[in-house]
Amino acid sequence: MQLMEATGIREAFHNVRKHSEHICAPLETEDYVPQPVAFVSPPKWHLAHSTWFFETFILKPNVPGYRVYDPDFNYLFNSYYNNVGERTLRTDRGNVTRPTTKAVYAYRRYVDEQMDAFLEELSDPEILALVELGLHHEQQHQELLITDIKYILGHNPLFPVYRAEQNMVDGRNTETGFLTIPEGIYDIGHQGEGFCFDNELGRHKVYLHAFEIAKGLVTNSEFIEFMEAGGYQDFNLWLDEGWSWVNQNQVSAPMYWHLTDGEWHYFTLNGLQKVEPDAILSHISFFEAAAFAQWKGMRLPTEFEWEIASANLDWGQRWEWTNSAYLPYPGFSKAPGAVGEYNGKFMVNQMVLRGASVATSPGHARKTYRNFFHTHERWQYTGIRLAR
Ligand SMILES: [Fe+2]
């Protein structure tokens, strides 16, 4: 287990919990509360929900006589677990001004103390595995914290700076050209002792035709060429749903891009900046990725091609859209109860992204990791790798 190898579960727990608060350290109280669109959750909600996860799945069932911090929190901070009862509508998360941010931090303190005492004695491998799932779950919310904070600040007309010292835009490719992978039968899926999510299991064989995959990701300047060539206006390049999305939403540039005095700028966590031509493109939807690939006379790799090629690729700057629908691997099975709701029920109408991004927490990435989003979503650090 990558997270815990060096440190053991107690220290891993503290490190992960502290990291969430480190991400929120630059925020003012007001920044913790809004939900500007349904898919963005308030930072306060992430901090409380990741805490609720430990309270609900670890402490409540395993600590005799455990006193729940506040019985109302189950309703407020359950995300999507139908097995755990009724909950706030996702779209109402931003309306919950109470408990206050301060109260949510107090909730974290309480659960951290209870967890610390519990972990000191813990040796049951099944519960340990659940704690580890809770840590990886919190790391997923850490990435969402960053992208949701970016959305909240990036849709403020003042474009506030999140953290001046943290540069998260200027990632460059270290390599160019294409890698050739020969045809063959390859093994796909997680193997070995380390942690993985259930959706990576069911290691199985796939047959791949020979293919070539780009060693670098598409850069801003390459995407500007597509824009200047009329890419957003040419229906021939777009999937039908993508063309509807472009027109319904009047899309003409990646998310966070603004044309000011004839020059492209974008909002970054360092504030509004001129678009850096050589930096790796980010914040594009699957539809845009597919249209760009079409314009280039190429395509997106499948998730299987990506996994096999990844051993020889530089990755980890952007989540990379693949042309694979998010589906169960052969032999996939859902765990019984609430934990079974973690991944399996989302396996419809979403595409797989591979890799990791600049916002992914340390120790969280794997080459078998299967991220997934809807085809129009682009507030994550998403980019394009071409294949042919
Ligand atoms: Fe969650």
The N- and C-terminal alpha carbons lie at a distance of 35 Å
Overall radius of gyration:
21 Å
Mean pLDDT: 95
User: What is the CATH H-level superfamily of the largest domain?
Assistant: paralog of FGE (formylglycine-generating enzyme)
How much of the sequence is in beta strands?
A: 5-15%
Tally of helical runs? 9
Q: Give me the CATH architecture of the largest domain, please.
A: Alpha-Beta Complex
Query: What is the class of the largest domain in the CATH system?
Result: Alpha Beta
Along the chain, the helix and strand elements come as: HHHHHEEEEHHEEEHHEEEE
Can you tell me the CATH topology of the largest domain? Answer: paralog of FGE (formylglycine-generating enzyme)
Number of spatially distinct domains: 2
Helical residue percent? 25-40%
DSSP summary, beta strand count: 11
Q: Largest sheet, if any?
A: 4 strands, mixed
Within the largest sheet, what's the order of strands?
A: 10-9-8-11
Shape: globular
Question: Overview of this structure, please?
Answer:
With 388 residues, the chain is of the alpha+beta class. The protein folds into 2 domains: 3-154; 178-383, paralog of FGE (formylglycine-generating enzyme), CATH 3.90.1580.10. It contains 9 helices and 11 strands. The mean pLDDT is 95. The site of fe (ii) ion has 4 residues, from helix 5. Fe (ii) ion is lined by residues 49, 79, 137, 141.
